[in-house]
């Protein structure tokens, strides 16, 4: 019998209740499982780190913390009955709400620091699921559709001369009862579908900028240097200057150019980024006026890394990093948390999963139908993990019988493609990302070849895996599109064979389960194959890994993705329990066999 640990309400939730100025309509529930970081979160330290490591400025104001909250009415409410801890979604225990609401109203006030006078003030949202409308001092300043991408607004003209400034946010999210990408979020979770995460779920912050300022910096690495495209707002003839420095601060390259156009910086004695040596250069972008005086300045970083397809000695197509055949081996990473759902409780928690992935001997991770906060990719870059990034799928009924499914309605297709483009543009400078996955197992799939070609045209520097798991579910035939043929076989490993110029991978396999009493989510545990002890789990993992090496050597496999990093709700096939408190198999044995698989696939 599965036993659920008895948990008291964590200190965070007690703190939220004490701090409320008005009674809540419903008491927040304690999480069914706490993580080692649950008790570290409180209203004064909700994700305090600067949220955008590739475009940093020294002055900023974090707006995470307690906001007023209500679900009342279509129009802006005149009173709020609850408080919510932003940026944790309302469904999460960390938010202090603990339920789903189709419509959410948020309110808080802030003051503009005196030394920001004379500058523009930008308001940034990391992500709000699914449709957001924002007012500052009763003036609408932004609307945004899609729950996975960031958006910003220049709120300067809405600010009062002094004193408190008011922000109101309305978010609407019905999860799968909608035409927006949702990934695995569901109102009625179960099996491989999980609790939804609505509303504000990433950091909210303010920063001052000059009238002419950098809005984004697109960085494309090659093996000998960087192509950097600074994009600016409010420019009046300024030039962009880009400076590349080694980690110790020594300048290695400097060049100027017109904003909005690529600026090439050759790097002498280039030090390449690899999973074994994740070397990153610091990059500074400045705007210079006609006299050469510097205005806006932003900081960032990038590594020198390429990905391509090459032929091995047997003539088979293989994935190559920096021109060298590199076997991609890593876990399926879904990014769910028992206390924060879509939002990790702390930055240390966000980093933890990636650190454990490295300790398990992997060099790769597939981010599965979810887009993470920018700091997750920062840690993948810093720690040295190659990444495939999935596009979150449109809603789909997974209990449909096998066979062709009707394509999504035109409105859903528009939403999907708009957010797909936004995701790629938002993440295109991330060093660790080497591939895009538009579709998974046919979920919400349509026009596969066109979408794959569109993604490749939008970013020709990375691989496109048109449909991960094209062999399964019988819903869509192989279109032949993209750079990768991707097999899903449980327990597997799968045995795909080269059929054309695409490399072949086991995009999902494994799924070996183990129930650890006191560390399971309420409900019936499930896995593709259940084991009854850590020893049996480790033994089966070794057997599957040894079989994987045979497939690599005989078929020319380029990658393998094991399900999965952690348990997720009722799925108990993770290396770690859902609360991240127990590593289920023997880590040293698993790591030894993972490294052996990488070595077998990397001639």
TrEMBL record:
Chain ranges of the Glycoside hydrolase family 2 catalytic domain: 343-469
Note the InterPro entries from the entry. Beta-gal/glucu_dom_sf, Galactose-bd-like_sf, GH, GH2_Domain-Containing, Glyco_hydro_2_cat, Glyco_hydro_2_N, Ig-like_fold, Ig-like_GH2
Pfam families (UniProt xref): Glyco_hydro_2 (PF00703), Glyco_hydro_2_C (PF02836), Glyco_hydro_2_N (PF02837)
UniProt entry keywords in alphabetical sequence: Glycosidase, Hydrolase, Signal
Q: Which domain of life is it from?
A: Bacteria
* MF terms in GO: hydrolase activity, hydrolyzing O-glycosyl compounds
UniProt keyword Iron, yes or no? no
Domain named Glycoside hydrolase family 2 immunoglobulin-like beta-sandwich is located at 264-305
Look up keyword Transmembrane and say if it applies. Answer: no
Query: How far does the signal peptide extend, from start to end residue?
Result: 1-26
Q: List each copy of the Glycosyl hydrolases family 2 sugar binding domain by range.
A: 86-169
GO terms under biological process: carbohydrate metabolic process
User: Which protein family is it in?
Assistant: Belongs to the glycosyl hydrolase 2 family.
- Name the UniProt record assigns to this protein: Glycosyl hydrolase family 2
